[in-house]
Amino acid sequence: KYRDSSSLGLPTPGAVCAIIDPETNEFLPQGAEGMLVVTGPQVMKGYLKDKEKTDNVILKIDGRRWYKTGDKCSITKDGFVLILGRYSRFAKLGGEMISLTAVELRIAETKVLEGSEFAVTAVADSSKGERIVLLVKGDLDTEEISRSLRKSGMPPLMLPGSVFCVNEIPKLGSGKWDFPGMKKMATELEENKKKTT
Q1: Measured distance CA(112)–CA(177) in Å, rounded
Q2: pTM of the prediction?
C-alpha cells in the first residue's frame, strides 16, 4: 500500500517517526494514539540561546535526538502517520483529555453563539488540573451564555468553566487563531476575576 489519503503520508527518507506517551515520554506500540516524535538528520540542534525551550522539545534516547512535534497522532501498520489533533488544543480535566476543537464544534452545534465569533482555550486550575475558558467577541451576557450551554445537553466535561466577552480574540498576522495569546488573555481574565470576587 503506497497511498493513504486519510493520512499525512509516510515519513520522508532518512526520518523515523514514533509515538510516545506525552506524560512519560515512553514509546507506544504501533496503532496507539500519542505524541508524534521524529528523529533523523533534519532534527534541529535546538533553539538559539534557549536551553529550556530546547529541552522541552528535544528528547535524547539511546544516542538519538527526537523532536516532539506536539501533534496527537497514530501510525498505521503500513507506516502512515495519522494526525488526530494538537496537544496544545487539548485540556486535561481531572485526568481526561478533552479536545478544545471538539468543544468549539459542540458549542457551534448548540447555536447558542450563532453569528458570534468565539474560541476556546484552557487555563490552569488548582482542583481539576485545567479548566476550559470560552472567549466571545462582543458585549453579550456571559451568565446567559453559560446557562444556555448547560441546558443545551453538552457533556458536562466539555462545558466552559468561565465565559468572557472580549473586544478581539487574539489572532496571528495570517488571520489564524493565536493559541498562546488566547491562553495568556484567558489567564489574565481569570486572575482579574479572582481579584474582584
Answers
A1: 21
A2: 0.68
